Amino acid sequence: MSCAVCGSTEDVSKCAACLSVQYCCREHQKEDWKAHKAACRSSSTGAGTSSAGASVRAFGPPASSWAEGLGSAERAEWLVDCYRMRVDDDYVNGGCNLHGLYDPDHTAMTVTLDFAVFCKLALANNVLPDGWDWKVLLSKAGGLLPFAFEKSDAQKKYGRENKFAALMGGRSLRATGTSVWRSDNAIAD
Predict the structure, then answer these.
(1) Segment 147-179, tens digit of pLDDT
(2) Using CA atoms, how far apart are residues 188 and 38, in angstroms rounded to an integer?
(3) Threshold 0.70, pTM exceeds
(4) How far apart, in whole angstroms, are the C-alpha atoms of residue 46 and residue 96?
(5) What is the CA radius of gyration of the chain?
(6) Residue 42 and residue 30 in contact, taking contact as beta carbons nearer than 8 Å
(7) 5-54: per-residue pLDDT in tens?
(8) Per-residue pLDDT tens over the stretch 59-91
(9) Which of 101, 104, 85, 110 is nearest to 29 (CA)?
(10) How far does CA 42 lie from the centroid of its chain?
């Protein structure tokens, strides 16, 4: 295959979200994003589901185990930070999966809608614990969504970020994000 923008066949990489288009550089990914965005999202929506449409979880602790021991406000902030870190990971490693604050045409409304999709997936994939408080989440989200959040921010705020911590009974923003999206665009730790 060749770059969707210039036709180059050297050093091309596939869109990590849909795997259906390739680009030779990040600039061409950004340039083509408006045209590719709808097709990309519609072709990648079936990831992580069985043929019956049910959520698939391969192994490990329950998807909502990240919330154990956290209060309602702490749970809400963790989930918002999980979303923000995933948006950053998708920007850095996800090919042309530019969404949230990294969508070149983002507005407060498009960021809010992107976060709403994340929340809907979290609910559908059983990532939210029983007794989830949506009002607290919305309050936290309003103050945090306008700002980017990357691994160094997670390390400052939570002391570490290692996606494998969840397999050993700990918490990981990236592991939670993988449970929500059913895919992994995180940098290998």
Answers:
(1) 999 888 988 898 866 555 555 556 788 888 888
(2) 28
(3) no
(4) 18
(5) 17
(6) no
(7) 898 888 777 776 666 788 888 788 878 877 777 666 555 443 333 333 33
(8) 456 778 888 888 999 999 999 999 999 999 888
(9) 104
(10) 16
Contact 51, 128 (CB under 8 A): no
What is the rounded distance in angstroms from the CA atom of residue 126 to the CA atom of residue 139? 22
- Span between the terminal Cα atoms of the chain, in Å: 30
Angle at which helices 72-93 and 108-124 pack, to 10 degrees? 110
CA distances from 151 to 2, 13, 96, 167, 187 (A): 32, 24, 20, 19, 10
Tokens encoding 155: 């390390």
What's the number of CA atoms in the CB half-sphere (13 Å) around residue 19?
5
Burial category of 172 from C-beta neighbours within 10 Å (exposed 0-12, middle 13-18, buried 19 and up): buried
Looking at the predicted structure, is the pLDDT value of residue 55 above 70?
Answer: no
Q: Which two tokens stand for residue 30?
A: 């950004």
